[in-house]
Each structure stands twice: as structure tokens, then as C-alpha cells.
What does this fold into?
Amino acid sequence: MNDSVRFSTLHPDGTVTGQRSIARTDIMACPHVIMVAEHYRPDGSCRCNDPDHADMAEWGYRWDGATWQ
It folds into this structure.
């Protein structure tokens, strides 16, 4: 069993870019279990505690001063 989730972008011409693997344990450690590669830092930690992670607001989360809720 693979212990990571692989993310990439498949383009209409058949090329693949942005390949990245994130450990399942890192994804499961995210309080919201967000399945978007950009939500995770290179060290595997999630960005739920990053006030500058604007995608969270677009997805409907609200900043409570310490984390996105």
C-alpha cells in the first residue's frame, strides 16, 4: 500500500506537470483533510494556520486569529 497521495496536473495535450506526493499522515493531520496539493508546505505541514492562505477564505473558511475554521 502506498503511503502517499500523488497530485499532478494533466493538460489537454497529454503533458503532466506539477507532480507532487504528500504523505497520507500529513494529509490526515490537517484539521480539515484538504485534498489540494498547494495547501501543504514542502515539509508536509498544512496551511490551516497561515493567515495569508487566501484560498481558505475562497473555500468558505473564516480566520479566527490563529487558524482557519
Q: What stands out?
A: The first helix runs from residue 24 to 29. Residues 60 and 69 are 9 Å apart (CA to CA). Strands lie at 4-10, 16-23.
